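Hello,

Our lab assistant flagged a job as stuck in the queue for most of the afternoon. It eventually completed. Since we weren't sure the result was trustworthy after the delay, we are filing this so someone can double-check. Below is the sequence as submitted and the structure that was eventually returned. Let us know if re-running is recommended.
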Amino acid sequence: MNPSRRSVLAMLGATGAVLTLPAKAQAVPARTPGGLRPGGEFDQFVKEQAEKDAFSGSLLVINRGRTVLARSYGMADKAKSVPNGPDTLFALASVTKLFTAVALAQLVQDRKVTYNGTLGTYLTGFPDDIAGKVTVHHLLTHTSGFGDFFAFPGYLEAAASWTSAQQAMDSTTEFIRKSTLSFPPGAGFQYSNAGYHLLGAIVQEVSGQSYYDYVRANIFGKAGMTSSDFYTKPQWQADSRIAHPYGTLPSGGRTDGLEGRMFVGGPAGDAFSNCPDMARFAEALLGHELLDPAYTQITISGKVPPIPNSPGKPPAGATRPQAIFQAYGPLATLINGQWNIGHSGGSLGEATDFQLYPDSGWFTVILSNYDYGRGTIPPVFAMAQELIVSGGK
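-- returned structure --
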């Protein structure tokens, strides 16, 4: 949902030993640097973090279609002693926005939506100065001026009473209708959960399906993501496959935050998935099963010039990005001469990281049911990225 950091991160992962990549990429022999191999620097670091109870979750690292490293640590449910495993489902937080962005791109590809179409073209009930000026492009690039609906007065109290996915969807839209913009559309950059919720509302209105059903059929279904879904709070409580979110207490300890969660996630965050399913999403996206090649490129290429003040300070000694651009969903980052495309996310008891390095063929997905301090890049995420962009040495 509302990320504890947004940095140079991306989209992809894999399961088992195969991830279908473009033929050109498959033809290049894979080279696996020692730091990323089983038993290498990264593997040992993750193990040490888990032993210190500083990491809980699952991860997958692949290079040019072959699994390099797959690990799971910690507990999905501490009270019932259920361990995390490769098939454990995690709340994805804002990585969910990638599904919303691809769904919107599908409708643009089908000529049902345009990127320069205004909000008022697709949704009713907004003031004229918002309806006629905010565009789909603004919503996708966090330049609309809309903010974070979680921070709206009364929102969390109202959300605690919702008992259906459609009620959550429609009621959140109504809260956003009553909000004001922080700046004129296109005049600034502000990470916006409200903007991505409205993109989901547009998907719902234009497709004639609920947002949830559209994503199930056209993202999860087409990609073969058989375990992924927008699970409700009662399902989360009952299903042992789903990791509980262990949030950080002021004392430094952790507590199960499941009881305080909303009924269901939405277009801005908290779909549920696991490492194998995120690999299937990667394969379907890069294999142009979700979008035609042109629209895949439109979605993942940078749109808004270098983004200032991105939350999350790189660790000391880390390779710093040369530029960070907002794409239509993910970030596109130039770092050490290669492009990194993707998204991360975080909330109470959640930290997720989904990365693609198309120039070198690396892919990582890291899903955790521990959170980290706001604005902090989790050390496991940072090391994976550093080893990849530095050649793994």
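-- support follow-up --
The delay was a queue issue, not a problem with the job. The result is valid. The chain is about 30% helix and 15% strand. Residues 1-30 have pLDDT under 50 and may be disordered.
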